[in-house]
Amino acid sequence: MPTDADLFLAAETVRQKAHAPYSGFAVGAAILADDGKVYAGCNVENAAYPIGNCAEASAIAAMIAGGGRRIARIYVTGPGVAPVTPCGGCRQRLREFADNDVMVISHGVAGQPLYQTLGQLLPYSFGPDYLGR
Ligand code: THU
Question: In the CATH hierarchy, which fold is given to the domain comprising 4-121?
Answer without folding.
Answer: Cytidine Deaminase; domain 2 (3.40.140)
